[in-house]
Amino acid sequence: MKTALIVIDMQLGSFTPYSARHDTLGTVERINRLADKVRAQEMPVIFVQHDGPVGDPHHPDAPGWHLLPELEQAPDDMVVRKTSCDAFLETGLQSLLEREKIEQLIVTGCASDFCIDTTVRSALARRYATLVPSDGHTTADRPYLPAEKIIEHHNAVWSDFLSPIGPARVIPAAEIELA
Question: What is the pTM of this model?
Fold first, then answer.
């Protein structure tokens, strides 16, 4: 099954001291290892970057728009730019996946409770087999819940989510095998 790794919003503007994320470096390391596996199978790695409005840390002219320097980006990796939580909404992601004949997505990145959640649901609605590394996405503590609980909650929801093709498969990054 042809697979693409989607890496969402792993941008400097999301990882400031004021918006500390859970296990940032561990998450980046796991994403880098998954990217190596995907590239070794000659399948695409797609970085999705948020384009915020003027004054936003994710504005394309702001330093926060750039990817974390610890992420390993290869010359053949692709980039999709978005302006909402859904990486599919008004972007070129769907047509890119169709052109590459992708059947399965591995969704990783930041933030579990916003852009990752929305994109996982959107992928399932579009009938993509969807894998979510249970330890391949991150978020910040919120006033109502710590990051670890938010991640745990979303992993449970995605693995029991009703869609035309069934729920997402949620497993640790190290257990993801590509055939």
Answer: 0.97
Whether 132 and 158 have beta carbons less than 8 Å apart is answered as: yes
Contact 34, 173 (CB under 8 A): yes
Determine phi and psi for 21, rounding to 5 degrees: -105, 155
pLDDT digits (tens, 9 = 90+) for 115-158: 999 999 999 999 999 999 999 999 999 999 999 999 999 999 99
CA distance linking residue 178 with residue 166, whole number of Å: 20
CATH number of the 3-175 domain: 3.40.50.850
Domain ranges of the chain: 3-175
Alpha-carbon Rg of the chain, whole angstroms?
15
Contacts of 143 (CB under 8 A, 6+ apart): none
Dig out the tokens for 26 from the structure: 């561990």
